[in-house]
Amino acid sequence: MAFEEQIDVTSELHELRISAMKNFENKGFPTKKEEAWKYTSLNAILKNEYSVFPKHENAIEFAAVKKFFLHETDTHKVVFVDGKFASFLSATTHDGLDVCLMSSALNKPKYKMTIDEYFNKIASKDESLTSLNTAFANEGAYINIPKSKVVEKPIEIIYFSTGQEHALILQPRNLVVVGENAHVQIIERHQSLNDHQVFTNAVTEIFAQKRAIVDYYKVQNDLLTANLIDNTYISQKQESRVSVHTFSFGGNITRNNLNFYHFGERIDSTLKGITLIGNKQHVDHYTLVHHATPNCESHQNYKTILADQSTGVFNGKIYVEKEAQKTDAFQQNNNILIGDKATINAKPQLEIFADDVKCSHGCTIGQLDDSALFYMQQRGIPQKEAKALLMYAFTNEVIESVKIPELKQRITNIIAKKLGVNLGFDL
Q1: How high is the pLDDT of residue 384?
Q2: pTM of whole model > 0.90?
């Protein structure tokens, strides 16, 4: 592969990339003819001719991007600019845990055992965009938390695109391994810095061992010329607890494929999200929780607010195998349309083959409550602020479950800015 001339690569990785590339060539980019992509077209994205490799190594000043960091608290940081590691913006570590680069892990002998055990093991071999990422990915974050380690500060993974290329495709690959009884909080963000086209095709694999606790937050508030396909695959062992919060505010087309797989009893999986978009933005959440073992729980709660001509998609699937007795699975998707031309496509799915389970799903689509608006205006709250308070209250159930206070404040501020008001309170 011409790509491999750009990097060092082992023979095992070479074979893996060749196989992935063949799979992508056979399948091609997904189209609306596929059931899983029925409501999301990539045609507008694929019109552009993207650079796979930036022609120049572009540096940026910290002052120009400071606002994108969680600067209110100390964090580990792995930062990339146009797909390349930015050491001067990062704060990596090997002090009792590994927070470093995927390229190092893929090519250094001391990481070989971990890579052999985990890399590309839970990611789909059939999903075409995941295969494309496997074929071309070289850089990303490598996080390995050893047994019983409680990481004292959050880890930030941030990908900046400078726009120095007319159109750029980025294919970051993250691997997160969390050992037995370990605990970690991770924040991931993709951010363009100007209006040139960027298409990010990201893949993240997360492995939570026995009794591990993982809190993962995705902040998606990019420019309207940015497009993101995010494939996240999560493997959970016995008694582990993994939560993923997805906050979708920006970008042109955003597709979140979130897949949980259970490999042990008494597992807890939490999937929550807030989508607040307008203009002609499009956000698609495609979730899967695969219950394969008994006595496990999953909880999904997605809140969507759509304005103007925006489009939202929620396609949530709970799959319960015959052996997964005593499963407790809950799925909720609530949507508010505040634009006459806004559209929501919701498709909750339950596939249950066990007979002793507690599974439920709910989906609502509506508008703001006129009587509540009238009540608030009667008490002197202007209409704009009244609407904003109602929409904030609608999302608050998800915001309240954020465990990093500084991030909770940041999300509240983003929502207030999107609604065009000052909410008048701090968290």
Answers
A1: 82
A2: yes
